[in-house]
Amino acid sequence: MINDKMNKGYRYMVYNNIKKEYQFPKICETTEKGANTLLFKFIGNDARKYRFKVVKVEKEKAYQIVKDLKIKYKAERIHREIENIPLQQIINLVKENDRLSKHKMQEDTINIKTYKGWCRELEEKEHIKILDEDGFRNIKNFNENMKFTKQEFAKRLANCTIISC
User: Residue 77 CB: number of other CB atoms within 10 A?
Assistant: First the structure.
């Protein structure tokens, strides 16, 4: 119990002394014993070999290492399927994809507005008015205060008649 309190800012991870890199992103434990147990669970008696070492890493650095390892392993899986593209280029593409998908998720959760709010934004920024609301009328109990993400609103807007003002 005392040991757990001292290790709150640290994680234990597996370091390969031969390859000089961290391995096994799933092994990121708060205790050394927990990391050793998982290592034996994953690779069995090969964990006894001198090349694997459980090391103490700062929590933030550990999470960055895990993130980088996941990207690397994902890129290696893709590289096995598409061998003619250099691994480093695939790694860069995977990083960019993760960055964009995270940004898109944040954008979706942030941009939730009412129907009225989206219409106001269209009028102010795009100078467009919705003439008929056919794309929205088929929603059960539709009213002006219903909330939509930007994508939902845009999809329904495609079925509406709009004019420029």
Answer: 11
Structure confidence by residue, pLDDT tens digits, 6-19: 557 899 999 998 98
Integer Cα distance of 117 and 9 in angstroms: 44
| Residue 14 near residue 22, CB atoms below 8 Å | yes
Instruction: Give one word for 119, left, alpha or beta, with left for phi > 0 and alpha for psi -120 to 50.
Output: alpha
Tens of pLDDT, residues 96-111: 887 777 665 555 455 6
Q: Following DSSP, what letter does each residue of 29-90 receive, concatenated?
A: BSSHHHHHHHHHHHHGGGGGSTTEEEEEEEHHHHHHHHHHHHHHHHHHHHHHH-TTS-HHHH
Residues of the chain with pLDDT under 70: 1-7, 102-111, 131-143, 158-165
